[in-house]
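Hi all, long-time lurker, first post. I run a small reading group and we've been trying to get comfortable going from sequence to structure in the token notation. Rather than ask abstract questions, I figured I'd post a concrete chain and ask someone more experienced to write out its structure so we can walk through it together at our next meeting. Sequence below, copied exactly:
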Amino acid sequence: MKVARDPRFVALSLICAASLALCVSPAAAVEPITVNPIELSDGSILAGIDAIDFAAEARIPYAAAIAPLPADELAAQARDAEVRLVAATVYAEARSEGPRGMRAVAHVIFNRVGGRFGATVRDVILAPFQFSAWNRNDPNRPIAENPEAFLNCDADREAWDHAQAIARDVIEGRSIDPTGGARFYHTRSIRPRWAAYGVGRQRIGAHVFYRDVLPRRRRA
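-- Answer (accepted) --
Happy to help. Here is the structure in token form:
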């Protein structure tokens, strides 16, 4: 028994089949799909989309594998993140100190990497109660987290630009340490207890820097 087909139904079926065939990654290697004119039941000719080779379509992957980022691009992204973290820290800690004061703080960060302070720049900066701008209730914490939100004047923007340039210079080894290897500092407006045991003391702007602080067992 021959079943009559509505030409509109045939055309719609063919269009849907073609849409499925097109929903694949353009990067995937596919086999050609045969498309020939056909004659419908009413004698008319439908050109263009015809019999889809569904066997070939089944072999088409519906999602191409996502290629990983190149190693150099990943390294660049990590470097940019490190630059931003260092820049945000020195800006929040010493933005009023000018380029030299911010450079001094940046070098303290890198002088601490390794040993008892932390294995990475991030570890050093975010260690509890080390850089006060990252303390939970410190008024500079929001600035450290999002410096751009607090650039209210040209002086702020200039200081932020300096902080970013200094951070990149220090990270890439293009900076001279004005502290001579300091690993501690505090503002001149306070005197923490550990300052009495600091060695290699020097002043840079409103901060006092120390090359090191004697461990408890060596304190008189």
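A couple of things your group might point at:
Helices lie at 7-22, 54-58, 71-94, 98-112, 121-126, 141-145, 154-171.
DSSP finds seven helices and seven strands in the chain.
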